[in-house]
């Protein structure tokens, strides 16, 4: 049956594909940004940690807006929010492109101004993405109430499709040691093409009311399963955002975090919340780190292992792998216990990251990326499905909280954390090989991440210059520099592998829990979640 005949509105098919193109636009921008990090490092003299914070800002903004948008969608309406997303996407390009002019002569003030342009431009882009994410999931669920799983899979196949198109653009238009590519501004500006397309597709369209609006559910009722416990999990990341990104004092950041918890308590009559949902929220934070946080750097890392051009094509390969599985695997996924699938995915994530870290040839990296690509394909939609199955009363609010948690963790912990460890390991390895080389190439300003110790990283412009030369053109010091960066990339992947290890342990515990109560089963409003369901496949 076609989308046109299954949708409850005559324009359901048009809105579905407009949503697909909108998510595709987010994927194009994300992929191209990952491919131009080395351009930013060379032009603006950024360290890996600084670049990680910029990319993390995009994911952080994404997460914040999903949280807020999920609460406001019913009040404002889907159409108005889509228009807001379109404006944010367009404005983000203007702010980001201003970085070159702001940099000027490259003095410290110019570097700081360029950093702000890139950070807030990325942040605005993420706001647009977050608004769309908060709107499109309940919109498609409303349009196709009898076959939601299938059409939500089609919707979210737009993300890897965008990664493929953006990856191809980065691979063909970007700089390599033997090829002078187009400017990073031109490359990044390509995301505006699908932005214009989805905007045109939404002009004059009627958007239906959400399911929550039709049923008359209040915000307090929808938040009760999240409760103060779930709010505390989310607030832990919000405190980091207030302190690190908004530069508020730690005391003020903590007060604001407590205020969020009390605010949720007020709306829910101080409901404690469901322990299982709080655990799923925390676990989805780990999903954000290992999936999106790693994706922010995977081109950079695989490019260091092989070469930048091949790294970009390998990113396209992994995204295509994910696209095929996500687009066609919907019916298969729902024949398998979601918790069992998540356990298998996390286990493959561990193996995939370790295999990539040890690979030395293109074929070996491709095989490792296939394992890694399988693992990350099912994390996000399956986690959302578990929340939808087990907490139907929370519906769109709980799903928005999950999406926000994953994006916040990716932006605040994944991107900056991976950048920090790349800085740290590369600096340690270069210093271990030749202390004089390290003194020559180290940056003046240290890298920091949470409570981990400071490290003086390798200067981004010097590393970029060395990577831009062929092996024969590099001096002995530059060869040692590039080799240290490669070694740091390998060590970073092995460190990231501890995240899916933790996820696998949690999924194993959940698998045992559901087996103990009779098996995993979706529940409906009014049912006791502790009731003994019929056994399901593990």
How many domains, as an integer? 1
Distance between the termini: 30 Å
The averaged pLDDT comes out at 82
Strand content: under 5%
State the CATH architecture.
Up-down Bundle
- Helix % is over 70%
Strand order of the largest sheet: 1-2
Low-confidence runs of at least 5 consecutive residues: 528-538
N-to-C SSE string, H for helix and E for strand: HHHHHHHHHHHHHHHHHHHHHHEEHHH
The count of helical stretches stands at 25
Describe the overall structure.
It is a single chain. With 538 residues, this protein is mainly alpha-helical. The chain has one domain (3-226, 274-516): Up-down Bundle (Growth Hormone, Chain: A). It contains 25 helices and two strands. The protein has helices at residues 3-6, 12-35, 37-44, 48-76, 78-97, 99-103, 108-143, 148-156, 158-173, 184-189, 192-202, 211-215, 219-223, 227-245, 250-267, 275-305, 308-328, 330-333, 338-358, 362-390, 395-433, 435-441, 460-467, 476-496, 498-516; strands at residues 447-449, 452-455. Strands 1-2 form a two-stranded antiparallel ribbon. α3 (37-44) packs across α23 (460-467) and α16 (275-305) packs antiparallel against α20. It is globular.
């Amino acid at each position: 049956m076609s989308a046109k005949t299954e949708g409850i509105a005559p324009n359901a098919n048009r809105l579905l594909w407009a949503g697909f193109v909108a998510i595709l636009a987010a994927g194009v921008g994300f992929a191209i940004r990952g491919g131009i990090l080395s351009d930013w490092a060379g032009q603006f003299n950024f360290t890996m940690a600084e670049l990680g914070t910029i990319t993390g800002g995009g994911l952080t903004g994404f997460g914040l807006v999903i949280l807020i948008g999920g609460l406001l969608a019913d009040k404002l309406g889907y159409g108005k929010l889509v228009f807001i997303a379109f404006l944010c996407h367009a404005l983000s390009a203007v702010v980001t492109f201003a970085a070159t002019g702001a940099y000027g002569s490259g003095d410290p003030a110019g570097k700081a101004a360029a950093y702000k342009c890139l950070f807030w431009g990325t942040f605005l882009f993420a706001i647009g993405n977050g608004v769309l994410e908060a709107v499109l999931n309940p919109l498609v669920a409303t349009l196709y109430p009898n076959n939601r799983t299938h059409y939500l899979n089609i919707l979210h196949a737009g993300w890897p499709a965008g990664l493929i198109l953006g990856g191809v653009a980065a691979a063909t238009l970007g700089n390599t040691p033997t090829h002078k590519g187009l400017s990073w501004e031109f490359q990044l500006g390509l995301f505006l093409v699908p932005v214009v397309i989805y905007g045109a597709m939404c002009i004059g369209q009627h958007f239906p009311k959400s399911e929550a609006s039709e049923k008359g559910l209040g915000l307090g009722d929808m938040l009760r399963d999240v409760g103060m416990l779930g709010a505390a999990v989310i607030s832990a990341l919000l405190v980091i955002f207030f302190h690190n990104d908004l530069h508020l004092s730690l005391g003020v950041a903590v007060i604001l975090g407590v205020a969020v918890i009390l605010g949720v308590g007020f709306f829910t009559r101080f409901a404690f919340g469901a322990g299982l949902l709080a655990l799923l929220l925390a676990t989805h934070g780990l999903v954000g780190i290992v999936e999106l946080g790693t994706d922010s750097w995977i081109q950079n890392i695989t490019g260091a292992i092989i070469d930048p051009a091949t790294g970009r094509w390998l990113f396209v390969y992994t995204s295509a792998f994910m696209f095929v599985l996500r687009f066609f695997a919907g019916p298969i996924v729902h024949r398998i216990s979601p918790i069992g699938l998540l356990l298998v995915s996390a286990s493959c994530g561990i193996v995939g990251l370790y295999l990539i870290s040890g690979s030395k040839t293109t074929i070996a990296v491709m095989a490792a990326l296939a394992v890694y690509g399988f693992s990350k394909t099912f994390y996000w939609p399956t986690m959302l499905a578990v929340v939808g199955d087990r907490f139907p009363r929370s519906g769109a609010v709980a799903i928005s909280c999950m999406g926000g948690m994953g994006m916040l963790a990716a932006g605040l912990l994944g991107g900056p954390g991976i950048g920090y460890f790349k800085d740290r390991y590369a600096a340690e390895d270069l210093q271990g090989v030749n202390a004089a080389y390290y003194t020559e190439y180290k940056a003046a300003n240290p890298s920091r991440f949470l409570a981990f110790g400071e490290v003086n990283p390798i200067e981004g412009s010097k590393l970029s210059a060395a990577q831009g030369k062929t092996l024969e053109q590099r001096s002995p010091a530059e060869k040692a520099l590039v080799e240290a960066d490669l070694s740091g990339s390998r060590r970073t992947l092995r460190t990231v592998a501890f995240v899916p290890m933790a996820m696998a342990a949690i999924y194993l515990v959940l698998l045992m829990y559901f087996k103990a109560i009779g098996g995993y089963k979706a529940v409906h409003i009014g049912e006791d979640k502790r009731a003994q369901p019929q056994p399901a496949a593990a």
